[in-house]
Amino acid sequence: MIETTQHRLRLPSRWSVGAIVIALIVVAPILAVFGIALFPKENIWPHLIATTLPRYLMTTAKLMFGVGLLAAMVGTGAAWLISRYDFPGRRWLEWLLLLPLAIPAYVGAYALVDFLEYAGPVQTGLRALFGWQNARDYWFPEIRSLGAAILVLSAALFPYVYLLARAAFREQSASSEEVARSLGAGPFARFWRVGLPLARPAIAAGVAIVMMESVNDFGTVDYFAVQTLTTGIFSVWLEGNNAGGAAQIASVVLVLVVLLVTLEKISRRRMRFFNLSTRHRPVAHVALTGWKGWVATLACTLPLLMGFVLPAGVILSHALDNAGNWIDADLWQAGLNTAIVGGLAAVICVAGGVFLVYGVRLSGQRLPRLLLPVTTIGYAAPGAVLGVGILIPLALIDNAMADAIWNATGWDPGLVLTGTAFALVLAYCVRFFAIAQGAADAAMGRVSPNLPLAARSLGRNQGQVLTAVYYPLMRASIASALLLVFVDCVKELPATLLLRPFNYETLATRVHEQASLENLGDAAPAAILVILFGLIAVGLLARANR
């Protein structure tokens, strides 16, 4: 008997389709940047290459490598001292060294300039102490410079290296230390020849994050008048009114970011270390007494002072001196706007991340699984780049929709997508989707496969399994992801500046605009609120890395 029935084409489930749609929405702005750069209305590549692009590229490279090197030295050194030695204040400093993550780099820049400028307390005190009359009587380093930008960004970002390096040092076995010590290796030799090579993949990952955040920064470099690729996007687009040129610069930024991510993955792939011992013994802390202990305390305290205490103290001082600004209606309107767009973005982002991960797990198809890691690229893409990739396509769609509705009904709906906070929420979702996706993937991975199988055997459909089985077990991870995404939305500046509607302020844009006008008193209350939100994220991070 000849079988004539054909196998039916297996249609993808709604979960697979939804996962693919979410992944494409996240990736679309990145693809749009390259599309606009390749087919601009006005090709200014020759002009950019002949004039500003080499300068932007060189300054960005100096900034990236300067911040990466300094953050690596500070973060790795602090992590080694914390994980290997016992000295006064070590238990407190182990967690206090995470506090600089609560201070956005641009807030640190405003505080440093206010502290060190001609009318600031440092130079005023020097003139009073030595009897100098004006700036011609003494030399003082230039504050608004590339070197100062490197210092500020390093102070704000070194905890990324510290956190990963500390984890790597803590996971190392005492056996390697004992072997090195038996061969006569001193403290520095054990660090340089044993501890550092074993932790190098983790340190490389932290440095890659620091360098990507340096490329993303706009507030610091703009305030210090340092021309980077990110400031170039703003100047070419907003001042030169050339969106295609901005997309071309943005494509260069994306290539740099992809190169950094690729190099970091290659470095980790080529360097793998395994603990062959059946019993892992952690390295015992060596007690540092006398002056050595206090030197170690000072070495770990200086980055904390520079990255958190100084900026927080300067901003808090201005906030207290200008207490009347706390009742400014514009401040609280900016706070309300921040809460609305940040809250919406956090909810949508986390819901999309859970849906995507669940859909990929249910799908037996290859495409959703391939798209899952691609969706994390938004976190590496600078906010200014996302602004280009989102605003230009949305503006075209917005105008086409408005024209179609006007021709059909005679009613002008206005700009629905770009005239509201829609574009801003979309940018936040794309930028921080990796946080939500990573949290959902990790939480679902901890759920035993037997539980959803048991629910399915009892007649529950896939949606009910998600809500009745996975959600109760994932609740804590989802709450943490919501808070982390919200806090990152509060601090995000470049995308907010480009995509916010007209006359729409958030806490980040209020801090930037007031500080740019040298009005730190008005900027201080908003900056304090941003720092408080940042402290929430640091608390979650410290709790997760106990």
Task: Label this structure with key terms.
single chain; 546 residues; mainly alpha; MetI-like fold; two-stranded parallel ribbon; 24 helices
Can you walk through the features of this model?
This protein has 546 residues and is mainly α. It folds into 2 domains: 13-33 and 322-546, MetI-like fold; 44-273 and 280-316, MetI-like (MetI-like fold). It is built from 24 helices and 2 strands. It has helices at 14-38, 45-50, 53-84, 90-96, 105-116, 121-130, 146-171, 174-182, 187-216, 219-223, 229-239, 243-270, 291-321, 329-362, 366-374, 377-380, 383-409, 422-431, 433-445, 450-457, 462-491, 494-499, 507-516, 520-544; strands at 85-86, 286-287. A two-stranded parallel ribbon has the order 1-2. Helix 7 packs across helix 9 and helix 14 runs antiparallel to helix 21 (462-491). The longest helix is centred in the middle third of the chain and has 34 residues, at 329-362. The termini are far apart. Residues 1-9 have low confidence and may be disordered.
